[in-house]
Amino acid sequence: MARFGLLARSRRAGRARIAVPAVVLLLGALGACSGGGDGASPPAPEPTATATSATSTTSGAPTASPGAGASSTPGSGGTAPAWSSAPTSLTRSTSPSPHLVEVRAAHDVEDGLSFDRIVLEFTGGLPGYSARYVGDVVKPGEGSPLALAGRAYFEIVLHPADAHDGAGASTLRSPVGGGDLPAVRQVAMAGDFEGYVHLGVGLDDVVGYRVTELTGPDRLIFDFAA
């Protein structure tokens, strides 16, 4: 009986020694789950960036400011210099010299703009020119002033240009004249000599003008504000 009791106590002690480590392991696992141990929290997951695209919208088209560009030439579809009363010139070396075949003048109103137009028509291209207001239009080779109607005088010199053919006959299809318009009172030939054609324009007063060119046929155009 004594031996049986000792054996029973020995077996219970062995079971107790086995149970203690199991309890310790269980407590350690619970501590790890509850943030125990070294006290460090597990890293939080990084947020995921979402790509977005920004769309820029423009309302309407750019608007040009009035007066920012060159003025439109009536009837030409192109552009022209601004109105001015200052001298102007253009140099050309056209060979052979263009022939002046017609000079005509008329009044026009277009897009609210009132002007008298002098058209110089050529064959063989366009010449260079100089144009300016003068005290008198002087006849080349003579030095005498050209008689013109009006109170202001405007001189146009074309070069290289002729108003006659090789035989000396005039190439003009109609007489130079015109006038009695709001601004332009008279257009007259002052000279045709050695590649230079001189024209005089009598005006009611000094006004702004502009010069433009057209082709098909070749034309040099002087517009005078009226």
What distance separates the N and C termini? Answer: 149 Å
Output mean pLDDT: 76
Q: How helical, in percent, are the residues?
A: 10-25%
- CATH topology name of the domain at 83-225: Immunoglobulin-like
- For the record, the CATH architecture of the domain at 83-225 stands as Sandwich
The succession of helices and strands, N to C, reads HEEEEEEEEEEE
- Rg over CA atoms, rounded to whole Å, is 51 Å
Largest sheet, in brief, is: 5 strands, antiparallel
Shape: globular
Keywords, separated by commas or semicolons:
226 residues, alpha+beta, Immunoglobulin-like, 1 helix, 34% strand, disordered N terminus
In a few lines, what is going on in this structure?
This protein has 226 residues and is α+β, with helices and mostly antiparallel strands. The chain is built from one helix and eleven strands, in the order H-E-E-E-E-E-E-E-E-E-E-E. The strands form three sheets. It has a five-stranded antiparallel sheet with strand order 3-6-7-9-8, with no helix packed on it. A four-stranded antiparallel sheet has the order 4-5-11-10, with no helix packed on it.
Describe the structure.
The protein has a domain at 83-225: Immunoglobulin-like, CATH 2.60.40. The protein has one helix at 2-33; strands at residues 71-72, 79-80, 88-90, 99-110, 113-123, 128-134, 152-159, 184-193, 196-203, 209-214, 218-225. The radius of gyration is 51 Å and the shape is globular. The strands form 3 sheets. Strands 3-6-7-9-8 form a 5-stranded antiparallel β-sheet, with no helix packed on it. A 4-stranded antiparallel β-sheet has the order 4-5-11-10, with no helix packed on it. The chain has a two-stranded antiparallel ribbon with strand order 1-2. The N and C termini lie far apart (149 Å). The model is unreliable at 1-77 (pLDDT under 50). 14% of the residues lie in helices and 34% in strands. With 226 residues, the protein is α+β, with helices and mostly antiparallel strands.
